[in-house]
Amino acid sequence: MISLAQFIACGVGPTAARTFVDPVNKTLDHFKISSPAMFIAQAIHESTGFTKLEENLFYTDPVRLARDVFRGSFDLDHDHELDPDEVEFAKLYIRNPVALANRVYANRLGNGDEASGDGWRYRGGGIFQLTGQANYMAAGDALGQDYKAHPEWIRERPEDAAMTAGWFWMSTGLDQYGESLTVEVVTRKINGKAMLGLNERRLAFHEAQRALI
Question: What is the pTM of this model?
């Protein structure tokens, strides 16, 4: 059982810590997660210290959006280069998170097409940014929750935000690594090949390790 003081020492602000210490403890116990410091460190990074429970899809720079963040969704001619017409197209999705989610997550992860609205409905949510209707439904089946009908629960309720992260942790086999589990392995599972924020995740892990000794 992680105490509130230990949770704060991991790098979680006092207000967020009071909200999430019980849901996180319940998750760690329910899934028998053997690497709590790693789990908490990754959660801290993904959720900005347990303060953000949904993906930020508000972008202001069309070049960054089309070139660096969602290249595959804006590479209209599939030449792996950013062309002027692609930048113009990306401008349609600037400051428009609903439209952006519906485009970049269309026909992926169990979602319907762009017009279905599934991309926005099942956008990244929870402390690990669970994404896509298929993942929402699988987590719901495992946890006895109807996340297909109520995807907002993952983004609004601390216990659901934490428990779905625990489900993701176990369903991707992260707990099977034991002592060989590394920050790099977990980051790739959670963030994909982009491996964003790797150094920050390493620092968060070391801090969590010290706090939980």
Answer: 0.91
> What tokens does 185 get?
């392995």
The predicted pLDDT at position 170 comes to: 95
DSSP output for 24-92: HHHHHHHHT-S-HHHHHHHHHHHTTTTT--B-------HHHIIIIISHHHH-TTSSSS--HHHHHHHGG
For 24-47, the pLDDT digits (tens) are 999 999 999 999 999 999 999 999
Full set of structural domains in the chain with CATH:
4-54+125-130+153-211 (1.10.530)
* High-pLDDT (> 90) share of the chain, %: 92
CA dist., res. 151 & res. 71, Å (int): 26
| Phi-psi label, residue 178: left if phi above 0, alpha if psi -120 to 50, beta otherwise | left
* C-alpha span between 103 and 92 (Å, rounded): 11
Q: How many helices (H) and strands (E) does the chain have?
A: 13, 0
